[in-house]
Amino acid sequence: xxxxxxxxxxxxxxxxxxxxxxxxxxxxxxxxxxxxxxxxxxxxxxxxxxxxxxxxxxxxxxxxxxxxxxxxxxxxxxxxxxxxxxxxxxxxxxxxxxxxxxxxxxxxxxxxxxxxxxxxxxxxxxxxxxxxxxxxxxxxxxxxxxxxxxxxxxxxxxxxxxx
Length: 163
Description:
29% helix; 11% strand; globular
């Protein structure tokens, strides 16, 4: 976190930028993450019979709640267990809220090749985004690249149009 001005996630996976409700068989499941990392979740999470569809919300709604503050998610395309496809779905789901608030440029995602890790490329993207958000410098990174153009739309919301 950056003191309320914005937020960043780095290869956070399930329960971070990636949703609980959209996963492929290779992704870290709700059951796996609550069993392997129970200290990341509150005691109310049902670890014996976890059903992500029983949750009152998913990560896309948490990302939308950050609007209009800056939010950057960095992901790795080969971090399959971390669900980078799900992170892209959540990014696209939060985008209408940012657009409605006139802050679409404050929601960013960056994908790099590689596995679950933090690399100099991730830090460079974070610094580039921070320079844009805090100093108005034109980014050198395209924060809207979608490496998964055929993802399903898993959300049903849209911003009001005022009509």
